[in-house]
Amino acid sequence: MGTDSWRDLEPIPWYFSNEIPWETRANGTLYWIASREPERHDLIVSFAVEDEEFREIPMPNTSSEEEFPIAFKDVGIVRGRLSYIERLPDNFIEVWVMEDCGIKDSWVKLFRTKFDVDLRYSTPFLFSKDGGIVLMEEYSKKFIFYDPKRNVVRELRAFLEAEDGISGLQYDREVTKNGSGR
Hints:
The protein is mainly beta.
């Protein structure tokens, strides 16, 4: 990368998920959901910009592998660490964090919970410092905040500006896990 000329890298042996057409970035590294076989999506691939190296990162052994063979998978960053998110049928979501990047046994499950709203088509948007997660619902473009400590779901209103992206998220409604509003 440190040169002002283009060059070819080695061909890459992975198939990348078209469910998530963008990468997650942290500390000079890009991450994608990928596989060595089409449609499997069973590993994470990273590209370190500094040394221009691709690496495979194993996914955690989730409890959902047998329970829900079909899951929507995504990667993100939580507190500066690589995270793995599974959105499962029946409105379950699991979030894992890798404590030591590249070491499979260092995955730690942050939470698994069931929502009263369908999150299969939601994308993790950001994580709060206290562990909350903001998801964007793909079709309605609604923002949802989940506080795992209190088991509370909030619908958020977003104010969008074309030039600046999102300029703010505002609390709109709080819903407990059983769906009653507060």
